[in-house]
Specification:
alpha/beta, about 140 residues, single chain, 5 strands, globular
Length: about 140
């Protein structure tokens, strides 16, 4: 489902913009490539600090975040989510993680996630959800 580009006030670029936060490049790069093929401007961060810096200096229409960004079993993605919500209270955020428990999903939703999905997800379905979420924000 290709996204029909519209300009919004926060992001004057007619392409919808997306930040993908995932420490696994084998996951992040195919997601970004697919979204770009659908008309999105997709950027990748592989560490929480990198994502936080991008969020501070750029505008995005949507975020896709992994919860775990290290092998230590933490939930660094939740901290990034909380930071996003402080500066972007209505921008859609989707959590996409292999480590989604009921407790983690509840915490992600309390922190402001719009959707919490388990990996893997078909790229077509993920892009369709993103287009619906961003379309409702721009429409």
């Amino acid at each position: 489902m290709q996204y029909s580009a519209r300009v919004n006030e926060q992001n004057p670029d007619p392409q919808p913009s997306l930040l993908i936060l995932d420490d696994e490049e084998a996951i992040a790069y195919p997601i970004a490539k697919y979204f770009r093929s659908q008309g999105w401007r997709a950027e990748i961060a592989t560490e929480a600090e990198e994502a936080e810096a991008l969020v501070e200096h750029r505008r995005y229409d949507m975020f896709i975040l992994d919860l775990r960004l290290s092998s230590y079993g933490g939930a660094e993605g939740l901290e990034v989510l909380r930071g996003i919500r402080r500066s972007n209270p209505v921008t859609p955020v989707v959590i996409l993680s292999a480590f989604v428990s009921d407790e983690m999903e509840a915490e992600a939703r309390r922190s402001g996630a719009d959707h919490v999905l388990s990996k893997p997800q078909p790229l077509k379905d993920l892009a369709g959800l993103a287009a619906r979420l961003v379309g409702s924000q721009l429409g």
